[in-house]
Design a protein that fits this description.
The chain has one domain (6-141). Helix content is 42%, strand content 6%. The protein is built from seven helices and three strands, in the order H-H-E-H-E-E-H-H-H-H. The protein starts with 5 loop residues before the first helix and ends with a helix.
Amino acid sequence: MNRISIPALSKQVQTEADAYLFMEELIWDGRPVCPHCAGVRKHYFLTPKAPEGRKARTGKVSERRVWKCADCRRQFTVLVGTIFHGSKIPVKTWLFVLVEICASKDGVAAREIERKYDLTPKTAWFMLHRLREAMTRGDGFTTLTAGTIVADEVFIGGASRRAKLARG
């Protein structure tokens, strides 16, 4: 996976199931890893069943991609142990907001995210703060701290030469 842009992401991720597949490829590189026991021996994909019981009221089949570990016998998704885990916000929305933050030169305002993705102000604020905190901690964003980084319009330290000349 080379470059991720918003148009490319919108072609690849059209449903919530597509978002899970995208995350699995991005995080696991196609081979599931159990977040509970770090087992890589064998995992079983649990196929969603037809709507019944609680799901029958909504009429929808879950688009979550759930796996079961053969070692510890626990269920997991690609979101376990990430900043997306436990959130009621669709993974698709998380992905688009993340790409938008990374693509924006001057940052993204919570009000802008609120308008673009039809979220409440509190939800937009929560998403941005969770993503920013993850970027500072390095949870899954290790590619930002290793290798060659190309930056446009970067100013590091002290007053600029132009400012010093203007002062005198």
